[in-house]
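Tutorial handout. Part one gives the primary structure; part two gives the three-dimensional structure as tokens.
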Amino acid sequence: MINDDTDSHTDVRGRRRSRARRRHRKGNALFTCFLAVFVLLAGFWALWKGTSLFLTMDAEEPSTAQENRPPTGGKEVEADGTRWNLLLVNRWNLLPDQYEVDLVELPGGESVDTRIYSALQEMFDAMQTDGVYPVVASGYRTAEDQQRILDEWIAEYRAQGYSDQEAQAEAAVWVALPGTSEHQLGLAVDINADGIHSAGYEVYDWLDENSYQYGFIQRYPDGKTEITGVGNEPWHYRYVGVEAAKDMKNTGLCLEEYLEAMEESERET
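Part two.
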């Protein structure tokens, strides 16, 4: 009787496990069907919208109202005679007083000056055509944003054992003081890889080779720290216009050196 009873329980447990396996397989099948339908619908939506499922920067064109508004400061040339795209901001040249910027927001919440939007979008489109997928990690920053980032870096160095003075000095190599950051111009962006379809080195290599064609330069190249005041940042790109970007690419000059060469040339003429 004991053996018969044990066999009976075994049969019941076996039937229950069998039913559970069937329910599990049925659930997996339903989930697979749902996933397939979702991907198919997403694909049709993407085709209808004329975009890629993996497009990392697809901000809408600035509205007509934005296009008709005057750009930053309403001038092509700043008060000191410098063209807006060549405005120099670094630790020795502060952001001009009363500087204003007309922004367009990108997906993800970052913003840039409306005047560089088209060039930035064109460059990102070209990158994706070449199989490189970038994202704008940081665009325009307020003075408050810049101070917050600087404070975070200082705190990190302090946590590593640096004194207050040492921490501030080390952080200043990588993060500009408020009022001296190009991010406050709205003309600079930190560009990184999406981390899914591309790696960082792929993005940086592409930008190093091609960004000048769209008016962007690597603002803080290797070997120029004493001139720019900032360590090498292969992700930080600044819009200067196609002509200036090509000149700097061909000569190997950073923005400070380029502007100095321009001044010397003007004095000679």
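Part three, for discussion. Residues 97 and 177 are 15 Å apart (CA to CA). The chain has nine helices and six strands.
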